[in-house]
Design brief:
Shape: globular
Structural class: alpha+beta
CATH topology of the largest domain: Pseudouridine synthase
Oligomer: single chain
Strand content: 25-35%
Length: 304
């Protein structure tokens, strides 16, 4: 497997590599002796004092390492001196998983932008697409991490769901939790009163507005007022309208459990309605230095 690093300012190879190359990699001298570095895809790098210029691409070969193929086409949507908001494609994990160390959003941003010390300010499920806020360096991350909930004042999503809701607007407020008895360990449920099956109930609130209906599916606008795990997915499933493509919350988790044993088939995905859950972060409202900054997903990336 090979991974690319883009060069954004002139510097020596050794200076460039130190903060960027994986800690698990051999020393630079060993990489050079093994001919595992290329410049601009056609020159084998042999000298640590190689002078890199803006626009160069440095390629590192990782031996005996393979990863799950995912869509790596992230895009920068907005930025200021401290933060950037990017569009994450569906299927791309935000950070390392058991299957992906380098094909993750944070790893790609660090390798393909000037911000090699970028940090996630919040998260999205791997199958959820849309807007994500990142700090450009560790200083900004430490400065704002404990104030992230206040910084990320508003989060809005669009979701394609199964069925035709009988409401135009609904404000759902309830406790949700994992269950001791759940076959799917990570699945969240709306809590039943006085049930010993709830692990750790937490209050949650989501406002839902029906945008449109097309046949047997509907597009819903979702405004979060709390940030619990799987909150929108859990709430919509509880309302009888699971998200299209959701392997956990649609069809009682049948396809999530099947995928643990074998790959899903084209027919399975046809039943699910999509390969990835059709949930997308479409708007962030940031409260920054007394100003409200409204960031919306460009129409070219919308699932609607």
């Amino acid at each position: 497997m090979k991974i690319d690093y883009r060069v954004f300012e002139p510097q020596y190879l050794a200076e460039f590599a130190l903060p960027r190359f994986p800690r698990s990699c051999p020393a630079l001298a060993e990489l050079l002796s093994q001919q595992r570095l290329w410049l601009n895809n056609n020159i084998i790098v042999t000298q640590p004092d190689l002078w890199l210029t803006e626009g160069d691409v440095l390629t590192l070969e990782l031996t005996d390492h393979q990863e799950l193929a995912v869509d790596c086409r992230w895009h920068n949507v907005w930025e200021n001196d401290e933060f950037m908001v990017v569009n994450k494609p569906a299927g791309l994990p935000v950070s390392r998983t058991t299957r992906n160390l380098y094909h993750t959003l944070i790893s790609l941003v660090r390798r393909q932008s000037p911000y090699y010390d970028a940090h996630l300010m919040h998260r999205l499920d791997a199958e959820t697409s849309g807007l994500l806020l990142l700090a450009k360096n560790s200083h900004v991350d430490k400065k704002w991490k404990k104030k992230a909930q206040r910084l990320l004042a508003e989060k809005e999503y669009h979701a394609w769901v199964f069925g035709q809701p009988q409401w135009d607007y609904l404000d759902l407020q309830c406790a949700i939790s994992e269950r001791h008895s759940s076959v799917i360990r990570t699945q969240m449920y709306v809590c039943e009163a006085d049930s010993d099956d709830n692990k750790k109930p937490q209050f949650s609130r989501t406002e839902f507005t029906l945008i449109k209906t097309q046949g047997n599916v509907s597009l819903i606008h979702c405004r979060l007022h709390s940030g619990r795990k799987h909150q929108i997915r859990c709430h919509l499933a509880h309302l009888g309208h699971p998200i299209v493509g959701d392997k956990i919350y649609a069809f009682d988790g049948e396809y999530y459990l099947k995928r643990l044993q074998q790959p899903l088939t084209a027919q399975d995905y046809q039943v699910l309605g999509a390969k990835c859950q059709q949930l997308q972060a479409v708007r962030l409202g940031l409260e920054l230095y007394g100003q409200t900054i409204d960031i919306r997903l460009p129409a070219e990336f919308a699932i609607a």
